[in-house]
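Hey all, quick one. A colleague (J.T.) asked me to put the PBG job into the tracker so the inputs and the C-alpha cells live in one place instead of scattered across chat threads. No bug as far as I know, just bookkeeping. Sequence used:
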Amino acid sequence: MNSDNQPAVPMIDSLLTLTHRPRRLRRNASTLSMVQENYLTPQQLIAPVFVKSGAGEPEPIGAMPGVFRWSMDDLLNECRDLYELGIRAVALFPCTPKEVKTPLGDYAIDPDGIVPQTTRKLKEALPDLNVIVDLALDPYTSHGHDGILDPTGAWVDNDLTVNRLAQMAVVYANAGADWVAPSDMMDGRVGVIRKALDQNGHEHVAILAYSAKFASAYYGPFREAIGSGAAVGKNYLDKRSYQLNPANRREAIRDALMDEAEGADILMVKPAGPFLDIIRDLRESTRLPVAAYQVSGEYAQIKAAAQLEWLDYRKARDESLIAIRRAGADLILTYFAKEWAQENA
Ligand code: PBG
C-alpha cells in the first residue's frame, strides 16, 4: 500500500512478442497510400440527373441540397461539366407535369416526350457521354406506381407493364439512348426488352438492370424530385408487391441472376449503403459488372447531418462511397458524383 492506501501499480515486463505488427503498414501517409486496396475514379461514377419540361431557373429539391431539376438547355451545360470532370454517363430522370400523367402512363412512349427530346439533345452535343434512360412508369402514371394497375387497382399487372417497358426501350433507343435501365422490378422484363431492342435494330443498346431493388424508405427525396409520390399525397408509396423485401438476401440474388440469364449487361443493387452485403454476394455470384445506386435518402442523410455539424461532411461522404466500392460495386450511381469529381480532379 502506498500513502493513499491504493494498491501499488504492478510492474509487468512486456508480455508481447509480436511477429506481426499490422501497424507497420499504417505508419505514415506514404505507406498507407501504397497498401490501399480500393480506389474511386470519376469513370466509376454515374450522375443521376433530373430534367423538367419547359425553360426557367434550375429548381432546387428540398431534401437533396445541391441537386436540381434542370431545364433541357441547362442540363446540357451541366452534362458538359460532368463529362469534362471525367464522368462518362448520366442517368436521366424526368420530372413530368401532372397534366400529362394518366393511369396507363401513355406519355412514357411519346417519341416527343421529355426524355426522348433530352436524349437527342445530349447525344448531339456530347456524343461520348453515355445517356442512360430509366424504364419504369412512375414518372408518367397518375397513381405513381411503376407499372399499369389491373382492374382491382391493387396489383400492378406484370405482363402488360412489361410490354409497355419494351415499347419505352425502343422509343428511347430510337432517340439515341446508349443504355436502358429497367427500374420497375417486373418479372421477365429484361428478356422482353432485349428482344424488342434487337428486333428494332438496337442490338448495341445495353441493359443496366435494377436487379436487386428493395422496397426502401430511402427513395423519399427522389419521389419529391420527380413528383411521383405526390399523386397519392405521400412520399412512401407502397411498392412491396414488386420491389424486394429488405429482409431478404437469397431472393435478391435469385432475382438478379434471372436478369443475367435474360441478357442484362450490368446488374444493379439499390439502395447501396444499407445493402452492402447484397453487393458483395452479387459480386461473387456473377461475372458481369455490378453497379450500386446510392439513393436520394442516403445522400440526404449525409447532407442533413453535415448541415447540423454532426458529421465531417467530406469524410462521411467519401467513406460512404469507398465502402460501396469495397463491397464490390464496379460502378456507383450517386448524387455526389459531380462534387466528388470536382474535388478529386
Ligand atoms: C422508380 C425509381 C426510384 C428511384 C429511381 N427510380 C424510386 C421508387 O421506386 O420510387 C429512386 C432513386 C433515389 O431514391 O435516388 N422507378
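Adding what we noticed when we looked at it: Residues 134, 136, 138, 146, 183, 219, 222-223, 228, 239, 295-296 surround PBG (CB under 6 Å). The chain has a mean pLDDT of 95.
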